[in-house]
Amino acid sequence: MDDLIITIPDDNDISEDGKVRLFADIEKDQGIWRIHSSDSDAWLGNPHAARVDKPEILNLSDGIVYAKGTREMLYAMSKKTMRLIYAMIKSFGGDKILEKIEGRKSEMN
Questions:
Q1: Cα angle vertex 8, ends 76, 53, to 5°?
Q2: Are 56 and 73 in contact (CB under 8 A)?
Q3: What angle do CA 62, 72, 63 make, to 5 degrees?
Q4: Can you tell me the distance from the alpha carbon of 63 to that of 61, in angstroms, rounded to the nearest whole number?
Q5: What is the pTM of this model?
Q6: What is the Cα–Cα distance from 54 to 66, expressed in whole angstroms?
Q7: Which pLDDT does position 86 carry in this prediction?
Q8: Region of residue 103 (left: phi > 0; alpha: psi -120 to 50; beta: else)
Q9: Which residue has the higher pLDDT, 25 or 71?
Q10: Nearest-angstrom CA–CA distance, 105 and 1
Q11: What is the pLDDT, as a whole number, of residue 18?
Q12: Helix, strand, or coil here: 74?
């Protein structure tokens, strides 16, 4: 699977079960992200996501967002946002990416 580009709406436009609310304002969003299934410069591990519209990197295993240059922790995505991201990955045929994420989550525990 090639890299996947997704746009994440504002957290207020995501339901608790990870679905985008009808009439969500996609322009007011949490960014455009490129999900890398493999990346040779992956200090965060694979898979991860790189924000296209800001210098940020998302750890897909725990939802923590880091500054791309400094690797400083910036913030965490909400659980409902992570559910939406996983659903988007799945809808685009990213089952292998999801398997890698689950494997990394179990390694962290």
A1: 85
A2: no
A3: 15
A4: 6
A5: 0.78
A6: 11
A7: 92
A8: alpha
A9: 71
A10: 21
A11: 83
A12: strand
Closest CA to 59 of 71, 47, 67, 41: 47
d(CA 98, CA 88): 11
SS3 42: coil
**Rg for the chain, CA atoms, rounded:** 13
Q: Which residue is it, tokens 């897909």? A: 60
Side chain identity at residue 23, one-letter code = F
Convert the pLDDT of each residue in 44-102 to its tens digit: 666 889 999 899 999 999 999 999 989 999 999 999 999 999 998 888 888 888 888 88
**Residues 87/93, Cβ–Cβ less than 8 Å:** no
Please provide residue 88's backbone torsions phi and psi, each rounded to the nearest 5 degrees.
-65, -45
Element (H, E) at 91: helix 79-91
Tell me, rounded to whole angstroms, the distance of Cα 88 from its chain centroid. Answer: 9
Provide the token pair at 59.
């750890």
Q: 68 — phi, psi (to 5°)?
A: -65, -45
